[in-house]
Amino acid sequence: MGAGKTSVGRELAERLGRPFVDLDDAVEERAGATVADLFARGEAEFRSLEERTALPLLSAVGPCVYAFGGGTVLAETVRSLLPHRAVTVLLDVSVEDAWARVGGSARPLAQDETTFRRLYAERRRLYEQVADVRAHDAESAILALGGVHVEPGSLQRLGELVPGDGAVEIAADARVAGIYGMDVQLALGGRSRGIHELPPGEAAKSVESLQALWHALRLERSGTLLALGGGCTTDVAGFAAATFMRGIDWVAVPTTLVGQVDAAIGGKTAVDLPEAKNLVGSFHWPVRTVVDSAVLETLPEEELRNGRAEVVKTGLLAGEPLWELPLPEQVRRCAAFKTAVCLRDPHDRGDRAQLNLGHTFAHALEVAAGFELPHGRAVALGLLAALRLSGLDTTPVEEQLRPRPVQVDRDVAWAAMSRDKKVVDGRARLVLLEAPGKPRIGVELPPDEVRAALDELIAG
Ligand SMILES: NC(=O)c1ccc[n+]([C@@H]2O[C@H](COP(=O)([O-])OP(=O)(O)OC[C@H]3O[C@@H](n4cnc5c(N)ncnc54)[C@H](O)[C@@H]3O)[C@@H](O)[C@H]2O)c1
């Protein structure tokens, strides 16, 4: 009681794109009476009705978010079904906070503080028994459901945070291994079986580098590959984990801002072919993603800038100026946003396309620049074009990212845009915004209009 399960449950359902059912409402509907009236007839009768309503919900086909009442898990039948049919989130609240919220309200079991405290202590044990994850709000519930642990300093806690107790091998490039390799190995203790070094940057995502990693791995199927680094490291190591012995567990430990707010979340893994970037890959969700914003202290400014473009993109999609928050909170909120979108659409068949906001333009400019253009600068320009075509204020992008037009060949950029996989029958399908927080995917505009927007991003 008072943990916020109805409000958090409703928000969670909305953000995960699932139907929401509040068990109390379902009980009231079934009985044709209010919870208070049912209680007045005796708690035993209410509990029996609650149990008879909860059990079919747990057997229903298709994912839903249920808010279960504080007493629902008193029923042994419910407790034994939960682990098979649900991921159970314990909304953590102190007894003081819970009492402050509901004490003396109309709720039948919140009439006097002594009884309330006794119930809290009695039920706590059962809650701990059934909980798969703990959370205190919708954001932390989403992160927990996605296996994403966000906590400054968590690198030192990898020993507890890497699931299981089997061997762990680490993949990292030389720079990241030099700065954090020792800390990570110390944190893993006896489970650590050493570090595999990857080439720096995009070269890590070559087939040769992937093959070298496959050959170097000594893990058994019960082992875990830990990817420590930026998006290049997590992309290739994640793909190595997806394919080695037909798939082993992996843990992502992103150390760039791009990785923490984007690349290490959502299970997309890939390598590049000469024909195109990310042409071969798989969906292989890491068993855990550990996000420690403290490691961003050693990240060079140019890499931070790349990440800021993704933060601004996320803020525009979420409809909140997330870029104004302190960095650790920016990271947490952006990571939660991406996790929710990817849980909603894990295989990129619908809603996830919104994450491409600005990226069709960015990609065309990168191709025209022979990939010499920093990704963040390309995304900043792409966001500018997307906002202009949406008829929205461009101030957040101008102020936060200061995009400068690039000197590339206009025709080459336009040709690259036309070849983009998001172009169907010569018409680009763009992600635009109806308003901040309201993305529209698959928007088709007249080619002249799109070309003019692209041209505006090009200098000279
Ligand atoms: N899988 C996805 O969903 C997804 C999403 C976005 C981007 N990506 C991919 O991510 C890649 C780009 O990732 P990136 O921008 O993180 O670049 P990156 O992985 O190349 O890392 C950038 C550089 O920063 C250094 N570095 C990393 N962490 C550091 C730290 N804490 N301190 C000091 N130096 C550090 C690395 O050594 C590297 O040289 C691209 O290949 C892109 O395709 C994937």
Task: Provide structural commentary.
This protein is α/β, with parallel strands linked by helices and 460 residues long. Helices cover 49% and strands 17% of the residues. The chain has helices spanning 5-16, 23-31, 35-40, 43-59, 76-85, 95-102, 113-130, 138-145, 158-161, 174-188, 207-216, 231-243, 257-263, 301-318, 327-344, 359-368, 375-390, 395-401, 410-419, 447-455, and strands at residues 20-22, 65-67, 89-91, 133-135, 148-150, 168-173, 192-198, 224-229, 249-254, 268-273, 276-283, 288-291, 423-424, 427-435, 438-444. A 6-stranded parallel sheet has the order 5-12-9-8-6-7, sandwiched between helices. Strands 13-14-15 form a 3-stranded antiparallel sheet. A two-stranded parallel ribbon has the order 1-2. Helix 10 (174-188) links the parallel strand 6 and strand 7 (192-198). Helix 2 (23-31) crosses helix 4 (43-59), helix 14 (301-318) packs parallel to helix 17 and helix 17 crosses helix 20 (447-455). The N and C termini lie far apart (64 Å). Nicotinamide-adenine-dinucleotide binds next to helix 10, helix 12, helix 13, strand 11 and helix 14.
Write a brief structural summary.
The chain has helices at residues 5-16, 23-31, 35-40, 43-59, 76-85, 95-102, 113-130, 138-145, 158-161, 174-188, 207-216, 231-243, 257-263, 301-318, 327-344, 359-368, 375-390, 395-401, 410-419, 447-455, and strands spanning 20-22, 65-67, 89-91, 133-135, 148-150, 168-173, 192-198, 224-229, 249-254, 268-273, 276-283, 288-291, 423-424, 427-435, 438-444. It is an alpha/beta fold and 460 residues long.
